[in-house]
Each structure stands twice: as C-alpha cells, then as structure tokens.
Amino acid sequence: MVAWGGRLPSRRRLVTGFSLATFVALGGNLGGVTSALLSLDGGRLAGATGLDIVVPVAGKKRCRDDANGYEFLYPSRWLADQTIARRNALRMEQRLDPPSIREGRDARRRRDLFEPTAAFGPMGGTGEENVSVIVAPIMPGFAIAQLGSPRETAGKFLVTTVAPEGSGRTAELVDAGRFGDERGEEYVWFEYVVESQQYGWRRRNISCVASRADLLFSLNVQCPEGRWAAEGGLLRECALSLRLLPGTSGAAFPGAL
Predict the structure, then answer these.
(1) How far, in Å, CA of 130 to CA of 74, rounded?
(2) d(CA 215, CA 32)
(3) How confident is the model over 152-158, as a mean pLDDT?
(4) Model confidence over 78-118: pLDDT tens digits?
(5) FRET pair for 37, CA 20 to 30 Å: which of 123, 136, 148, 216?
(6) Residue 47 lies in a domain
(7) Residue 151 is part of a domain; what is its CATH number?
(8) Residue 67 resides in a domain
(9) pLDDT band for position 73 (cuts 50, 70, 90)
(10) Are β-strands 215-224 and 201-212 bridged in parallel, bridged antiparallel, or unpaired?
(11) 25 and 132: one domain?
(12) Residues 210, 217 contacting (CB under 8 angstroms)
C-alpha cells in the first residue's frame, strides 16, 4: 500500500483497532482464549469478578442466585433446567400481585413442597445426572453443627430423606467431612451410593449443606455409578463449591409466597 502511494493508518487508529479486536476476542471467548486466560490462576479472578458466570473456566461455570443468597459451580456443558426457570419466573410475577384469600391458603399448603431453586444437567439427559439446590426453612436458631459430626449428620439425612424405611432404596455412606469459607460459614458434605433394587439403578451422590438465617441450603450432585470414574472428579469439585452470599434473606425460596 505504501509503495503505491498509500499511507499507513495513524497510531491512534492502530491502537483503537487493536483494542477493539482484543475486546471482541476476549468478550466473545473466540477460540476459547478468554477461558484459557482465566484458567491460569485456577479461576480465582473469574470467581471474584463473576466472569465465570458467562465464560467457562476449566470446564465449569458459576450459578449465582442473589435472591436466595448462594452460588456454586457446575459443568459448563450442562444446561439449566427450563422447567425450574419458568417456575421461578412465575413466582416473581406472582409477587407483583397480592394473592387472593384462596390463593393464600393454597400457598400455605405448598410450604412443605420445596422444589429446587436451581438445577443443571446434560443436554438430552434422563435426569439421572444433575446438580440441584434446595432452599428450605428450618427451626429458628438451628445450625448444622447441632446434628453432630459430619458422619452423624449424613446418617440422619440418609435414613430420613434418601432411603427411609419402606422406600425400596438402600444408601451406603462413602465419606463425609466439614469445611468453612472465608466468611466463617460452615458446610457439611457427604458422599454416598443409593441403589434401587426395584427399578434397577445405582447412583453416586455428593450432598453439601449449610444453614443460615433460619434456612437450610442443600446442594446435591448425582451421577450413575457406572459414570462416576469419568465424571466424579469434576462433580465432586462442583458439589464442594457451594457458598452462601452475604445478606441472605431467603425471601425468594419456594413456599414463601
């Protein structure tokens, strides 16, 4: 271009063009460049800034539920459960209109039927492999530590919820533990295998639970036992990523209408 009498672009145009191209490449994650860069520090910057909500980092994305006050990681190739998303949207619409007397009674009857506030699973999956979170009210002043050690907590959970008497299911505890976060919140996790002789399935689960503001937060990851060897490492990391956000009020949990 210069040889034929043309002129090079100005330095300002070069800088502006390069900056715009870089912004487009990073913002659009072209070629996975943004994911690769954000993975260099183990995803710490992405987690602190919330970039991993929209950009996959090390094979994971972040779900942040500000209304219910929690966040967690899930496999980036998984999709959100659209049924739950529609129900949550409907609940938000219903809050804008005061319910009738009859609707109020119906809402009170639904208080014990708590559905997940978030769920993700593989596209086209059968539902056997997923991650979900349930937020439910508990007795005022209750704390997870009151249930005893992690193994004692897991034992009570398995007997009362996973494999109660007469359910036709059996549950075997694999491991359990406890950890805390930088805000002083305490989390209890337990890994277990659930089997149904009647329906012929066997699944590996990891549950992570925490309590705050008279609410119980329960994240559960499940996977067919036959796929655990391939998926277990990633799913365990997702299960232990549950974190409560500052200022949890629980105003949006199912049954609060």
Answers:
(1) 9
(2) 39
(3) 94
(4) 999 877 766 666 655 554 555 554 444 444 444 445 789 99
(5) 123
(6) yes
(7) 3.40.1000.10
(8) no
(9) very high
(10) antiparallel
(11) no
(12) yes
